[in-house]
């Protein structure tokens, strides 16, 4: 009896304490009356309605609405005015949330599309870049770098695929919440996560091997650049500039003094990554320049980098407004490169430039080389 009464009391927790006590006392009297007739507890229970049914009837009688979930019971007192206000606020909130969700979904779709295109672009460009690299460089020279690039490519591609997939799943979750109840299974997510982790580990290992073998040792593609001991070089090219200088001055060599300057300008246009080293070499003849190229690309390709003098563009410019700069002589050169070398410049072309000038019996010391 007591167990049944306690359970009923809990079910009626939404009522006022005094009302609940009166109801429990009434049912206690009913139990005592039935027990006095020598009825067993089971017989009494069979004659009573279920506790949930009793509780529902009493809540309706006392104008209380019962809302239950599992074993937890929540009580809400009916108030028409507050109910209308609450419903109006919920409608506004739901509308705002849906508008925001729609805008966010559009942005997420665009981001997903951009990231996916980047992922596809990386997948396409890496093989193309590797093919051009193998055309421009000796196979064994560029192979370690190719291995490293493939490893980096795998990691970067996975990164952009992850961003694309995350944006897509965000949109999917939003729309499923509005229009459906489908969810991606955890098993599928776990499989994807494990697969991507394995690919990242493999890509990182390949990348590490490629980076180490590309930079260690003077015979590696970047180790040779760091040690300034390039794998290939061409024969020294010499340019005698007496005629060019004479044409540039047009008989005004006497205007050149020890304060004058010579600018040696190289127009290297669209040629690949270029560095240079310039120095005075008194072993050269007067008004002579020597140039030697150092590079890691194939020797046959490196020899196609042509340096040509442009005498028609060279000129003398007298400066009458400065006591420390009486004038400037501009000597012009142009460097051209084969078309296929312009697409992939992964190591520089180094130009060693030596010069010796003597004009109007004046040894020239103010020489500036510009690229």
Automatic annotation (TrEMBL):
<keyword id="KW-1133">Transmembrane helix</keyword>
<feature type="transmembrane region" description="Helical">
    <location>
        <begin position="191"/>
        <end position="212"/>
    </location>
</feature>
<feature type="transmembrane region" description="Helical">
    <location>
        <begin position="141"/>
        <end position="163"/>
    </location>
</feature>
<keyword id="KW-0472">Membrane</keyword>
<feature type="transmembrane region" description="Helical">
    <location>
        <begin position="102"/>
        <end position="135"/>
    </location>
</feature>
<protein>
    <recommendedName>
        <fullName>DUF1700 domain-containing protein</fullName>
    </recommendedName>
</protein>
<keyword id="KW-0812">Transmembrane</keyword>
């Amino acid at each position: 009896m007591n167990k049944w009464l306690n359970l009923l009391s809990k079910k009626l927790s939404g009522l006022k304490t005094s009302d609940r006590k009166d109801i429990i006392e009434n049912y206690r009297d009913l139990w005592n009356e039935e027990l006095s007739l020598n009825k067993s507890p089971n017989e009494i229970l069979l004659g009573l309605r279920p506790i949930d049914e009793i509780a529902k009837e009493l809540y309706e009688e006392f104008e209380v609405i019962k809302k239950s979930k599992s074993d937890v019971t929540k009580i809400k007192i009916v108030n028409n005015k507050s109910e209308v206000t609450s419903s109006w606020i919920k409608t506004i909130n739901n509308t705002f949330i849906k508008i925001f969700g729609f805008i966010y979904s559009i942005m997420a779709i665009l981001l997903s599309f951009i990231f996916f295109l980047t992922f596809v672009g990386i997948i396409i460009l890496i093989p193309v870049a590797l093919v051009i690299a193998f055309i421009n460089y000796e196979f064994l020279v560029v192979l370690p770098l190719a291995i490293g690039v493939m490893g980096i490519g795998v990691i970067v591609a996975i990164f952009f695929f992850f961003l694309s997939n995350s944006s897509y799943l965000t949109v999917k979750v939003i729309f499923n919440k509005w229009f459906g109840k489908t969810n991606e299974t955890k098993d599928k997510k776990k499989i994807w996560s494990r697969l991507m982790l394995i690919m990242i580990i493999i890509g990182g290992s390949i990348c590490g091997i490629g980076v180490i073998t590309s930079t260690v040792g003077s015979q590696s593609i970047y180790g040779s650049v760091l040690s300034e001991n390039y794998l290939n070089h061409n024969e020294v090219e010499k340019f005698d500039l007496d005629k060019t200088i004479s044409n540039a001055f047009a008989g005004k060599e006497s205007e050149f003094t020890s304060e004058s300057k010579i600018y040696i300008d190289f127009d290297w246009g669209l040629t690949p990554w270029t560095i240079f080293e310039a120095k005075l070499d008194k072993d050269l003849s007067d008004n002579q320049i020597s140039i030697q190229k150092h590079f890691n690309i194939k020797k046959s390709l490196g020899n196609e980098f042509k340096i040509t003098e442009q005498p028609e563009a060279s000129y003398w410019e007298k400066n009458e407004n400065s006591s420390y700069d009486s004038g400037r002589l501009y000597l012009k050169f142009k460097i051209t490169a084969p078309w296929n070398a312009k697409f992939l410049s992964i190591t520089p072309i180094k130009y060693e430039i030596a010069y010796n000038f003597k004009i109007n019996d004046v040894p020239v010391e103010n020489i500036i080389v510009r690229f």
